[in-house]
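Session log. Operator J.P. requested a structure for one protein chain; no other inputs attached. Running the standard single-chain path with C-alpha cell output.
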Amino acid sequence: MPRPSLLFGDQLPHLQAFAASSGVVDCRAERPASLTMSARAFVVAIDLRTSSTPQTARRQLKAVLKDAVVEARRYGQFAHFIVVYAADATDHRLDSAAAGLAMRVHASLERELGESVDVVLLDVTGCESPEGLSRRLAAHIQRPAGTASDSALRWRDVEERSIAAAAMSDYF
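Structure written below.
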C-alpha cells in the first residue's frame, strides 16, 4: 500500500477536493486511530484571511509553520512538506517571509531526516479551482523529492504549470 499524504491545519475551501482525494488522510478534524507513522507528504493548511494586519499574518504563518514542523517530525521520512495558505490581499512582505521560511524549514528537515525533502509554501489566494489545485498537489506529491527543494509560490505561478516547473523558473 502506498504511503498516504497527511493533511493537517485549517479548513480551507481551496483544499476540499484534495482532502477528498484517494491517498489523502484528512487529519484536520480528528486523527484516525489507524494513522500510519509513514507518509509520502505532510500538507498543512493555514487560513490567514482573518489576520488583522499583514504583520499579524506573517507572525501567524511563522508560528503555525513552527508547530507543523514539530508535528511532521513524528512521521519519520516523507518526501514533501507542503504548506497551503490563503491571505486577504497580496502582501509582498508575506511572500518574502514565506520564501525565507521555506529555505529554513528545508534545511532543518533535511538535516534532521538525513534525506531530501521538498518544502513548498503555496499562497492560494485567488485560487478559484480547488480541483486544479488538487491535481497540482497530487502530481507534485508523486514526484521524487528534489524537484522543488525550497519554494514559495503563488497560485498564479502554478495555475498553468506544475509546481516543479514553477519552482524551477523561480530559481532562474
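Operator note: DSSP finds six helices and six strands in the chain.
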